[in-house]
TrEMBL record:
Protein name from the UniProt record: Sarcosine oxidase subunit gamma
Organism taxonomic ancestry: Bacteria, Bacillati, Actinomycetota, Actinomycetes, Kitasatosporales
A Pfam entry, by short name: SoxG
InterPro entries: SoxG, TrmE/GcvT-like
Organism (species): Streptomyces lunaelactis
């Protein structure tokens, strides 16, 4: 019997509402889901040989400065803690990414876990993106405090998220939210965006 399972993103039902809000804002705001991004949680000694080996294998060094992001091509590494990173890649690459990191870490103490199904990613861009997020986020989102290349584990509308300020090329923000809270957060964002539509 053929496998007929169809994969659905947590916010597939909201795509039309996101598009409508984006059109209504006149370019001031864009909301979209970036479904199925590969996400691999990496825990290891940042000063050990595994950190350098993983960086070489990924083509990017794991960031050592708190709350920063490093990008290389279609991959990003987010600093989540002194010995924890979230490596993000394109959809469908989680298996290869996890194996590449495991092989690079070798026999060094490390925990490498595919957490791709745990969260989905919302893209929030446009001149009003910071204003929209500031409605429900306790962080100072001014570019001097939370500019390109910064990330933080925080809350948005009381939902736990990982917030990423993208760089000039990758404008706007990523909001990584647990799949079980994605619908709630999408509704909140759309409601908060109403003043810009």
């Amino acid at each position: 019997m053929a496998d007929t399972a169809t994969r659905h993103s947590p916010l597939a039902h909201a795509a039309g509402r996101f598009a409508s809000a984006t059109r209504g804002s006149g370019g001031d705001l864009r909301l979209a889901e970036l479904p199925f991004l590969a996400q691999v949680d990496v825990r290891l000694d940042p000063k050990g040989p595994a950190a350098d080996a993983v960086g070489l294998a990924l083509g990017l060094q794991l960031p050592l400065e708190p709350n920063t992001v490093v990008h290389a091509g279609d991959r990003s590494a987010l600093w989540l803690g002194p010995d924890e990173w979230l490596v993000i890649g394109p959809p469908g690459s989680e298996f290869g990414l996890e194996n590449r990191i495991r092989a690079a870490a070798g026999d060094e103490p490390a925990a490498i876990t595919d957490v791709s199904a745990q969260r989905t990613t919302l893209l929030v861009t446009g001149p009003r993106a910071r204003d929209l997020l500031a409605h429900g986020c306790p962080l100072d989102l001014h570019p001097r405090s939370f500019g390109p290349g910064r990330c933080a584990q925080t809350t948005l509308a009381r939902a736990q998220v990982v917030l990423v300020a993208r760089d000039e090329v990758r404008a706007g923000f990523w909001v990584l939210v647990r799949s079980s809270f994605a619908g709630y957060l999408a509704d909140w964002l759309l409601d908060a965006a109403a003043e810009y539509v």
